[in-house]
Amino acid sequence: MPEDTVSAVPTRILVPIDFSSSSHTALEVATELADKFHAEVFLLNVVPESPVVALPEGVSEASIVEAAKKQAEGHFAKSKTSLEGKGITVKTSVEVGYDVAGTILEAIETNKIDQVIISTHGVSGWYPTVFGSITEKVIKLAPCSVLLLRTPKPKSSTKVSSSRLMEWW
């Protein structure tokens, strides 16, 4: 097949995970496709760096980011064990960045991803309203196929803390 031809059969699938129920659904779909097509799965969690805000004394932004990274890595270890138990090759990455969509797009390029599986609703709140939808940016700018899963909007419009989201994982 010529190098510039796009294949409908994925070989390297990226799943951006924010530990919402929607991203869990995306992981389930990626697992099915990876099993069917013998594709590798790349799980990516982006810990967003927040703008400077007043934190309680003794709490630093660095400590919050480090705790989020460790928690994500712990959850990914469980997912990796489960996927490898099904014979699926999986790689995980926890990145930190101000631009979540940009970090996802970098991962696509770096890992030569040919399929992204992403959901319409992840962690909700004011962020998408102010900065635009991460999913929308990935769909518009990804250099590969994107499978968009329409999932129900979360019941609450307030942002749920990442520690609460990660509890079920």
Automatic annotation (TrEMBL):
Pfam families: Usp
Transmembrane annotation, as ranges: none
Annotated UspA domain residues: 12-150
Matching CDD domains: USP-like
InterPro entries listed in its UniProt record: Rossmann-like_a/b/a_fold, Universal_stress_UspA, UspA
Family from the record: Belongs to the universal stress protein A family.
Protein name stated in the entry: Universal stress protein
Organism field: Telmatobacter sp. DSM 110680
